[in-house]
Amino acid sequence: MRKGKTRIELPAEIANLCAEKGGLTDATSKRARIGRLPIAVGAMNAIADTLPDTYHWRYKTAEAFMEEANALAQKRGGARDLNRLYWRDTLATIEAYTVMAAWRMVDIGGAAFTLLGGEHYIPAGILARSALESAIQFVHDARTISHTLDELGKLDLTTTGVQSEALEAFLLQSVYASRQSGADEIYKSKNILTVIEKIAKVAKDDPIAAEYEILCELTHPNFLGRSNYLVGVEAGARPGDETRLISHQNGLNSDQVLQSTLWSLSWAIEGQATSIHLVQRSIRDLFVTFPFLATKGP
Fold it and tell me: Rounded to an integer, what distance in angstroms lies between the CA atom of residue 61 and that of residue 51?
């Protein structure tokens, strides 16, 4: 079993390819986004380096939380104490979600680049789709979480008890999301296409939907994923008569596959890193505004 810190390793040949694709001033360019891949990897690795080998997630069931809240009320705990109990529990869930999401991106990105280094473009593209979905989901969630915490910082938690059932429900659906049959309705994961539409409206200059569509074609058993093995065409005796050469190697469509894979990995890794910083900043600001939230005792 692997243990300890893991970073995304960018193969030299991929880094060199990114340098060739980059160097443009047009921020909306596909080539420019690919050129930012080493920067994105560096940002994600900087976050990964700050994470512990093992994170201790303090988790409470609703029953355990209520028992502790009732005990606190019997001790005549005020709004400050109840807010500390409630928001420390909520922030613990947010932190754990952030850590797990970061590790997931590191693992997916690292595996994708290992495959690209071996010129296995199709499985790398499939992983890039997963990375893009993961990042888009976290970008969406981070925006909601950060906005909620920023609004919380405008209230007086020292004198007024504040809870957020909306944030509780949101975290249940985000952290414990499931598409398995039999899952409770509160855990039903958000439709990723709906989330992509929302983020695409925010990142208007990024062809998220178009690149995602290409990666979906690769992931599903459709022709694009198979046509990667088409390496040449020999003309026949008459128009429309040809011999198509297929081989177990990257062929005529491989450049399209590679570029979509690199673009998606670049967007996903950088988007994940930026959104993690957004959540961390909101938590840090909350602790600065209300230092008692960071303490353990009543």
Answer: 25
The identity of residue 206, as a single letter, is D
Q: For the chain, how many structural domains are there in total?
A: 1
Q: How far is the C-alpha of 264 from the C-alpha of 214, rounded, in Å?
A: 10
* Predicted pLDDT of residue 62: 86
Q: Is the alpha carbon torsion for 85, 90, 95, 96 positive or negative?
A: positive
- What's the mean pLDDT in 12-25? 73
Report phi then psi at 11, rounded to 5. -55, 145
182: left (phi over 0), alpha (psi -120 to 50) or beta: left
User: What token pair was written down for 228?
Assistant: 């990667």
Sort 222 into a burial class: Cβ within 10 Å, 0-12 / 13-18 / 19+: exposed
Tell me if 230 is assigned to some domain.
Answer: no
Q: Find how far residue 176's CA is from the centre of its chain.
A: 15
Domain of 42, in residue numbers = 12-58+72-219+252-293
Q: What is the pLDDT of residues 87-100, one digit of tens each?
A: 999 999 999 999 99
Evaluate whether 94 touches 279 at the Cβ level (below 8 Å): yes
Domain assignment present for residue 231? The answer is no
Residue 272 lies in a domain: yes
* Three state DSSP letters for 56-106: CCCCCCHHHHHHHHHHHHHCCCCHHHHHHHHHHHHHHHHHHHHHHHHHHHH
Is the sign of the CA dihedral 42, 271, 8, 171 positive or negative?
Answer: positive
Rounded Cα gap, residues 26 and 246, in angstroms:
37
The per-residue pLDDT for range 50-75, each reduced to its tens digit, is: 998 889 998 888 899 889 888 888 88
Cα distance between residue 296 and residue 40, in whole Å: 36
0.85 cut: is pTM over it?
yes
Does the residue 5 lie in any domain?
A: no
Instruction: Give residue-wise pLDDT tens across range 217-236.
Output: 999 999 888 999 999 999 98
